[in-house]
Design goal:
The protein contains six helices and no strands. By secondary structure, it is mainly alpha-helical. The protein has a domain of about 100 residues: lambda repressor-like DNA-binding domains (434 Repressor (Amino-terminal Domain), Orthogonal Bundle), CATH 1.10.260. Helix 2 crosses helix 3. The longest helix is centred in the middle third of the chain and has 29 residues. The N and C termini lie far apart (about 110 Å).
């Protein structure tokens, strides 16, 4: 019986290459979301606390070698950041889509913050509870919609009659 060493075939190496690529993707995406999240940037310690995992686990996951994270850990981290699709860390399409959604969310929050800052600079009392804030935001949105509609009245679509007084019966 000879004890020959056979060269590793590409079929044997294939899973290892994919595992390393997945670890690298997870590491770079984890670093990205920590730095670019609308509520961030998050330190490793802060994200670990939010997700209920150890800082060491996250540091290992972000390292060049990566680490074998459990599905549970990936789900915890994703959900702690408001990301419901844990494929965010593994799938490029999901990663890009979620990042676009987070950019839109960030822009909307920024606009609302500027609008509230302008409104509060006119000595209006600042709402203190969520219901008051919700009513205030709803009022602002409704006022903006009315202003938009008054500037750009909608024309009737095909088959519809223009708005106006109802015809009087003869």
């Amino acid at each position: 019986m000879s004890n020959q060493h056979t060269p590793e075939t590409s079929a044997q190496r294939f899973p290892v290459d994919h595992v390393q690529a997945a670890k690298a993707d997870i590491a770079s995406r984890l670093r990205h979301i920590r730095q670019h999240h609308p509520e961030g940037p998050f330190s490793l310690a802060k994200l670990a606390d939010l997700a209920g995992v150890s800082k060491r686990t996250l540091a290992s996951a972000e390292s060049a070698e990566g680490t074998n994270l459990t599905i549970e850990t990936l789900v915890k981290v994703a959900h702690s950041l408001g990301i419901q699709r844990c494929a965010y860390f593994l799938d490029e399409q999901v990663f890009q889509q979620v990042n676009k959604e987070l950019e839109v969310l960030s822009a909307l929050r920024s606009r609302k913050t500027r609008g509230l800052a302008l409104r509060s600079s006119h000595a209006a009392p600042v709402p203190t509870d969520v219901d008051q804030l919700s009513q205030l935001l709803t009022g602002i949105i409704d006022a903006a919609a009315q202003a938009r509609d008054s500037l750009h009245p909608t024309s009737p679509t095909a088959g519809e009659e223009p708005d106006g007084p109802d015809p009087q019966p003869p």
